[in-house]
Amino acid sequence: MACFEVLRNAHGLRTVRPRRIACSLGWALWAPLSRMASGTCAAARLLTAAPNESPLMNTPLTPVPISPVEDIVAEMRAGRIVILVDEEDRENEGDLVLAADHVTPEAINFMARFGRGLICLTLTRERCEFLKLPPMAARNGTVYSTAFTVSIEAAEGVTTGISAADRARTVQVAVAKGSQATDLVQPGHIFPLQAVSGGVLMRAGHTEAGCDLAAMAGCSPAAVICEIMKDDGTMARLPDLQLFAAEHGIKIGTIADLIEYRSRNESLVEKVGQRSLTTPWGEFTAHAFRDKPSQAVHLALVKGTWSPEESVPVRVHEPLSVLDALEVNRSMHSWGLDTSLHYLNTQGKGVAVLLNCGESAAQLLEQFNGTARASQAPERGRMDLRTYGVGAQILREVGVQKMQLMGQPRRMPSMAGYGLEITGYIPKE
């Protein structure tokens, strides 16, 4: 008789437990793994199976392929956990993701036991404001600007707050329609993450993807997420995640696919104007765009025409300051505004996207007086690593498909998801 049985819980997760074995005393015992004879039953195989083998069959696991977005949304709608992976040129990590409306103690326990990462709750900006959740730090100095708020705990119905049941209770309170800010206390054992308005089209992160997928599944725009680590404590990458998914019966999706899916069906930018523009470096056609979440207005200066298969030079200039129009060779840009437009004019084709940084009067004055803190330039430069969505959509709107980026190679999220291909880089001479 097999010593183990495979169960599937409400979240669709496979678990393995010992069968009840009748003994001579007539009562059932749970057979502990330590008492199983090596090689005599599935319990021994569970102990000795290689990492890429099934613990029950002692046969190699078949890596789970990437599922389309529609399947991932269906899993979320059914209350099942999925794995969401970002790209190699980003964190290259996978998170367990569950619509927060479907959270249970069992789901939290699975994440803690098998995911091993930090269990977080993704929330929209509006929800964070409603619950009066301020940022965890006044200045976010993290590499990817992960927007942690203060940690939270349910004000009632919990004990120490750390148990799976307590954390599930806190999540339930945070997303319940009738909840108020007073129903939560700080600090706690759940870590909310504030998503950027516009979701993955504005920031290609697990935070935004969790909110997007939950909303697409008809749930509250909130998700419980947890990074997946390997047994040795290092981060699981795609090959590891595909085996993990096979072992636990979970589907895998990607943020790039989610961006592509949303890009096919919606846009966060709208064109608000177009006219010819004469500059000291030549004639351009200026296209004005407004992005809907922030209402900021951005410009695309287009030179010439090209076929869809042509790779054209592109300069995405962010953040754009009034000083860029007045001062040449500003140190914060590898290509200045003047040199960028001069180069495009000599090439006879290309696009310069001028993104509005929305700087305050105080920030502009600091730059003007040369008193800006040394840390400000790197901080502002990091923003575009996660907010290239607007620039990408503008490039699509003006007909770019293949491009040579003017600048040094850098991390950029999910250009493939927008239907854009980077064929190379053009360093400043």
Automatic annotation (TrEMBL):
It comes from the Bacteria. One of its GO terms (cellular component) is cytosol. This is 3,4-dihydroxy-2-butanone 4-phosphate synthase. The keyword Magnesium applies. One of its GO terms (biological process) is riboflavin biosynthetic process. The record marks 189, 227 as: Essential for catalytic activity. Belongs to the DHBP synthase family. It holds the Pfam family GTP_cyclohydro2. Its cofactor is Mn(2+); Mg(2+). Pathway: Cofactor biosynthesis; riboflavin biosynthesis; 2-hydroxy-3-oxobutyl phosphate from D-ribulose 5-phosphate: step 1/1. Catalyzes the conversion of D-ribulose 5-phosphate to formate and 3,4-dihydroxy-2-butanone 4-phosphate.
